[in-house]
Amino acid sequence: MDSEGLARLDRRIAGCRACPRLVAWREEVARTKRAAFADRTYWGRPVPGFGPPDARLVIIGLAPAAHGGNRTGRMFTGDRSGDVLYQALYDVGLASRPTSEDADDGLELYGVRVTAPVHCAPPANKPTPAERDACRPWLVQELRLLRPTVRAAVVLGAFGWQAALPAFAEAGWTVPRPRPVFGHGAHVELDAADGPPLGLHGCFHVSQRNTFTGRLTPEMLRDVLRTAATQAGLRPAK
Questions:
Q1: Residue limits of the Uracil-DNA glycosylase-like domain (predicted)?
Q2: How far apart are the C-alpha atoms of 84 and 91, rounded to whole Å?
């Protein structure tokens, strides 16, 4: 476990200005704000990962929401996608509370770290391939720092899956060829030459489109989290 190394990485991520389009968008959103948050100070910077440095399970999303993570400075915090994710983590015993409202609400994750392949809020929630690739080194470094303890990963959505596979490969795990195809409930074992394997699990993203239409139900999400947590050596609630 390298807690100081991860803290340094988080600080470096928060200062990144590599992608002009994303910098302009996140800062414009932070200036104009949403009416409901007019009295709040927006974070308006890249959002680092959240969770303990000795996490055994990593959850990888897509990117921060404009008025969620971009406002609060914490992954999946202050938006409806986060409401779904953290409720499920609480339900299976991996979070201290069922809501994630702001970065100072006291929420703790138990053996879980939440991150993303893109750390800035993108327009229309759609990073470009170039922005995804520019941000990949941050995810690679984070995964390398987590390698001593992490044993399983849940990737939310096809975009995250496609972005994460090369990052896992660069961080030291072997990604099969042809590359595994994303699907809800997909499970792949990624071997490593110098350490234990990683269990990779696919899950539909916790977007409002998926949760409002029933494509992803709370039970489906809890099932994936329980399976991955058990493989990671955690003890999820039944």
A1: 48-225
A2: 11
